[in-house]
Structure formats: structure tokens, C-alpha cells
What we know:
about 25% strand
Amino acid sequence: MKKISSIRQLLSPDFIGAHALPSNIVYGDAICSRGAVSMINCEDTRVEAWVGGLDGKMIEGGGSRRRVEFTISENRLEWHCTGNPKNHQIFCKHCVALAREMLKQ
Length: 105
């Protein structure tokens, strides 16, 4: 098996579409387009960011600010958002926004 060397190698529009609900894609795109992704740490195998915290309606990207982390484990992308309940791997709107921001870079 080929070793994945960076998170960017795992991210794509297809990955987002396969892991996020359509509503989370819409909301995450709005968060990203309004510039509400602030990187804390960006390495090949670990990324952390503050995401969200905008005023307005949810469809406009409004909502709480959350800390999101992407890591690589055994050639798979793992993610955690402080807005998700414990032990749930939901690719939420905050995860979508961070993924979209990384795809722009």
C-alpha cells in the first residue's frame, strides 16, 4: 500500500461529497467563502483551525466557532470538530469549510 504523505492528498471534492451531508456542504461552503477559517497549525499530517463564528443565518455560514483537527492515521483521514458529540465521526459544516480552504491552497 502506498504511504499517504499529506492530508491534501486525501482531500478532494469527491471525498467531501462522500463524507458530508448535502446540507453540511452548503453550510461549510458558505463558511469558507466568507473567510471564517483561521489556521492554527498546518503540517502535512496534522491540521488544526478555528472555523466559523459568523453572524447571520446558517445558510449564510452563521453559527458557532469550532476547533477542527484533521490527522492521518493508517493512510486514512481522521477528523474531529469540537461541535460534534463524542465518538461521532460526522464530517460537519466546520470540517467541510476547513477542507474547502485547504483545497484552495
